[in-house]
Write a structure and sequence with these properties.
Helix content is about 45%, strand content about 10%. By secondary structure, the protein is mainly alpha-helical. The longest helix has 18 residues. The protein is globular, with a radius of gyration of 25 Å.
Length: about 325
């Protein structure tokens, strides 16, 4: 939906006002313009029809990469939108008879939100969307085998983009896994955790993910010669462009993985705002909870710093269904 000419002129006047207020900073104008364009494009409404709830949703909206917005990003978005509406209440236009009036005469939908705690609402893929995503990945090509192993690992481990992209073959080892049932043999993987200064962490690598990785490596011909310091996920010849990558041993970069996520999500008919890599972390957490994993276990899986953070994370993805009632009736069905 395009904005009317009056609103386009109002936005231009607001950006001009911001330009002079910030000593002619072109960088600031680009930021302000981008935020306003994203706000009005996302809700597809004329500014006078945008509500307080729309502003809250926009402030909490994930970044284009799919990650939750930082505190500074939320504040920046809020300041831009609030400033625009404040400007619009003083922006004078003229009717067909030459009479002046203020373009925006409602209440500022962003006013008073600075003291509120804006809850970030993680997005996730439904069960149907997960199945559709993996259904469009071909299993008869090397690229498809690689991509299936890659996204299956993201889904089953709930790790962040770089934590899986950076995996080396030597990061996977056969060892002893401990859980509530005791100890058992299995595969572990090691990764550099967020905010730990490069300190390595370890967890179980689920068997389906390991099997998919091995299948991909065997198909590529690398299984017999792969070294411990070789990256697992690397570029493969592009069937459209032809030829081999410049560096055949360089790991698949974050940008390439993001493009793959968008490509398969689009083929699967998944909404545009869900076409990113970070959504697999949210999706894994959501379906783990729905499947009965405890919030204590999920905290360790996600490596959250506190149980309160995991609780808020889980509560933001809560639905209106009452799975607990079904569990009760399974036990007390004769009532």
């Amino acid at each position: 939906m395009g904005l009317s000419l009056l609103w386009e002129r109002c936005i231009a006047a607001y950006l001009k006002d911001v330009f002079y207020a910030h000593s002619g900073s072109a960088h600031t104008i680009r930021d302000y313009s981008g935020i306003l364009q994203r706000f009005f494009k996302h809700f597809a409404k004329s500014p006078e029809h945008c509500t307080r709830e729309d502003v809250i949703d926009f402030i909490a909206m994930s970044t284009p990469a799919g990650t939750p917005p930082s505190h500074n990003t939320r504040n920046y978005r809020l300041n831009v939108v609030r400033g625009f509406y404040k400007f619009a209440t003083h922006y004078t236009v003229y009717d067909g008879y030459g009479q002046p009036y203020k373009l925006y005469q409602g209440e500022n939908p962003a006013e008073g939100l600075h003291a509120m705690k804006i809850e970030v609402r993680p997005r996730y893929l439904t069960e149907e969307e997960v199945l559709r995503f993996f259904a469009v990945i071909p299993r008869d090509t090397l690229r498809g085998l690689r991509d299936r192993a890659l996204f299956l690992t993201y889904f089953l481990t709930a790790r962040r983009l770089s934590e899986i992209a950076n995996l080396l073959w030597g990061d996977i080892e056969y060892g002893t896994i401990s859980d509530e049932q005791g100890s058992r043999p299995g595969y572990l993987y090691h990764w550099a955790g967020k905010g730990k200064g490069g300190q390595m962490d370890a967890a179980e690598l689920p068997a389906p993910a390991y099997d998919a990785i091995v299948l991909y490596l065997k198909a590529s011909g690398r299984m017999a010669t792969i070294a411990a310091d070789d990256p697992i996920f690397i570029a493969v010849p592009n069937p459209k462009g032809g030829g081999s990558p410049i560096d055949p041993y360089k790991r698949l970069c974050d940008g390439s993985i993001l493009r793959l996520a968008k490509e398969y999500a689009e083929l699967a008919g998944i909404e545009k705002h869900k076409r990113n890599v970070h959504i697999w972390r949210h999706t894994s957490a959501k379906h783990r909870l729905d499947g009965g994993e405890s919030i204590f276990s999920l905290k360790e899986t996600l490596r959250h710093s506190s149980l309160d953070l995991t609780y808020r994370y889980a509560r933001a993805m809560q639905t209106t269904g009452d799975a607990g009632a079904a569990l009760l009736m399974g036990k007390f069905g004769g009532l």
